[in-house]
Structure formats: C-alpha cells, structure tokens
Amino acid sequence: MKKNKVFIVILLSFVLIHSEISGQLSSFASNISESGGNGTNQKNYSNDKPRYRTVSDVIKSNQKVTRLDKNINTDEHEMGPLVSPDGKTFYFSRYPTSAQLGLSGDEDIWYSKWDEQEKQWSMAENIGAPLNNDYPNFISSISGDGKTIYLGNCYLKGGKMANGVSMSRYKDTSWTFPENILMEKGMKSAKWGGCYISSSGKFLIMSCMQEKKNFGAYDLYIYKKGADNKWSDPVNLGSVINSKGAESAPFLSSDEMTIFFTSDGMGGSGGTDIFMSVRLDDSWTNWTKPENLGTLINTDKNESFFFLSEGDHKIYFCSDKEGNNDILSLETPQAENTATSSPIVNHEEKTTEKSNETIPEIPSVGPVRFASNSSVISEAEAENLRKTLNLTDVSLLKMIEVNGYADETGSDELNDALSVRRANAVAQFLAKNKEFAKVKILTKGFGSRNDVGDNKTEEGKALNRRAEIKLVKK
After folding, report:
1. What is the pLDDT of residues 120-167, one digit of tens each?
2. Which CATH superfamily is domain 349-473 in?
3. Number of C-alpha atoms within 13 angstroms, CB side, residue 433?
4. Which residue, of 20, 69, 280, 445, has the fewest CB within 10 Å?
C-alpha cells in the first residue's frame, strides 16, 4: 500500500476528522444492513432512565467554556480529546506535527498528566512508538478500566497501515504494539471518518461513506460484539440520526444509551454542530430526535469531537472559532441555579439546603408562540415578554440565547428560514428595551427539529411553533 496522507476534511470546511487509509478504499461492503437484525429481543427503554436525556442534563447555560492552555493547545491543530477513567491522563491528537513537535509530518498521538499540585495538565508529550508512525495516528476510545486504548487503522509489519481498528494494552510501563481487532465485514473498502468503542467494549459506532446505503455523505453505523467476540454486520443507525449531510465523531455515554455526534446536515449556526440523541431500544435504529447542544458549545464556526469525561467531571470538545482547531472544556452540570424555559413567569428566591443563604433567581422565560407560517409576535405574547423584562435584573445577565423552531408543515428549507425569522423577531423585541439592548443576544434557528409536541395534531403543531429564550447568568 502506498504511503498516503489520508487525513480527510469532511463536514464542510472544518473538522479535521481523524484519518482513513485511502488508495485501496472506495465503498462499503454490500452486506451492510439498515435494519436491526431480526427485530427480536428488543429492550424498550421508555421506562428506563438514561443518564443524559436532554441537553439540560449535559449542559447548563451558566457554565463557562475554557480553552485549554498552551500545555495542550498550540498553533497546530489539536483534536480528539479523551481522558482516562481515573482522570489522570489526557490524550489527544495533533495535526500537522512540526519537526519540533512530533515524530512525523502527519497526525500524532499526544498525552498529558494531571498535575495535582498545580491543578492543571502538564506539558503534553508525544506518545512515541509503537503508537505513532509515519501514518495518521489517533486514539478512538479508552476501555472502562483505562488499560486498553482503541486506535484508528490497523498497524501492519514494516510500519505500514490498513483500514480498520486496533487496540493496545498498557503493560508494565509502556503500550503494546497495536493488534487488529476489526473485522472483515464492511471494512475492506470503506471510507470512514472516525469511530468510538463503548466503555464496555461491546459496541462500536463508526462514521462511514457508502453511496448506496447512506442517507447522506457520511452516516453513523454500529457493530455489535457477540458472545464469541466476533463483530456483527454493520447496521445504519437510521434516518433520525443520519441526515443528508455528514455525521461523524461519535461518542457514546457510559450507560450506552445516549449518543453525541457532529453533523453539518441538521441546521445550526456554523459549518458543523454537536448534537445528542437517546436510544429507544436494542435495535439501535430507534432514536429520539437529535438535539443541538446549543450556543454555549456550538458557534458560527465548527465544533466537533465531544467527550464527556467521568474521570475529571468535564466536557471536552474541539472548535476552530479562533482559527486553529483547539480543545475546549467546561464542567459537567452540578446542582446549579440556572434559567430554563418554563411558563412565564416564576420569579422567586431560593434557599440552599446547606445554609440559610438566599440566592436571587433570574426569572424563567416561557416560549413565545407563533401562528402558522408566521414570525409576528402577537400582542398577548408581547405582553408576557414585557412582564418578564420588568422582573429581570439585567446586571446579572451575561447573554441571551433565542432559539427558533417550526412545526413540520412545509419543506425543511422553509422551516429552517422560518425558525430563524422567529428567533430574530424575539431578539429585535428584546433589543427595543434599552436595558436589554446592552446584553449580547445570540439567535439560532432549528427548523422543525427538537419538537415538543406531536406534529400529527394541531395542538402539537402549535406547541412546536415557538421561540425559546434562555437568560444566561454571568
């Protein structure tokens, strides 16, 4: 096989999704299935409680996003953050590596150790051979015990590589030479954009390009490991998850019920946004409608490589909003006092359980409702908004997020545009107030995605024709 740089840029102008060994690779195997096997023994999760059901379970509006310092981020491109289960080791990839920074001219794996005394990650070091060679190298995921890492591509003798997935175990003081673990089916000639193996090691989610079987450019598929340790045929996750665009950089929560992924085909504010969806049964083809993680994570640029670390209780992701692709982080949600969308208007004081300290609440703002195919705010809705404005201490606000939505009547293109107009209409209404005009207002349209009502009924459609307002505290 020729040595080719196989680092592909998918998802519009962004994400440096890890790599593929090309040249010999062209299309997915013909035995890919779009359905969940024979449909038997499907567990219904409707009565279970996934750890992360909605965006509010993952991200709170008053959290602060932080760019990792120069020990991790450089003038190069950093991506694919992963943290060991004990929270003590940080892994990522850097591309392109310079003569001063790496062993090759391609993507390399780097790591950093947590410095408990300094309360920061140490200066990152190149992980070296045998994990790094002249080809693109990256870690896809880490086992639940932290002793096994799964890598993109298969490592062959003579320093060559092939398409697939491999694993390396930590023995004594070093990582073993990677051994091939994946699987003949669907991989011989696939173009793929990254994968993730669950912490249990039983499920593998892969982003693949396959013209005949895909809903879009790159779709997400699942492999399941059987009792004999052999992998199943790949199954497409279905049209709820996969759009006409490209889905990539998958991450599966530790309970294996919530998926996070990057997409450029579901609307949003930038080239690529990060979304989440909850699995509904064991077919892996039934999912809740993907929910955008919102403007705290997603910007008008490109975001990807979401990773929720239970080792250090942080969320990590990548963004190119400052030019180079950098790694950013924020704390996972705690029992914090945040503003959410609920019926207007609930303005009160809250007393903590640990003390008698009284914390002033920002009022919750209910959704603004709209008539069908309209972005005009009715007088009744306007009056509700005025009541909320009068009860809000603007000095407590960092920003305001306004998200517009539509029901499923009409085409996706029309609904996307209508949802943006609704968000902008609310933003303009708020900006007319001289105090609120001082606060940064961000708007985003989600079209007919993230519905809250049944689009088969008029009542449900009315609930979906809305704009939601989030008051973000400083």
Report:
1. 999 999 999 999 988 889 999 999 888 999 998 889 888 888 878 899
2. OmpA-like domain (3.30.1330.60)
3. 20
4. 69
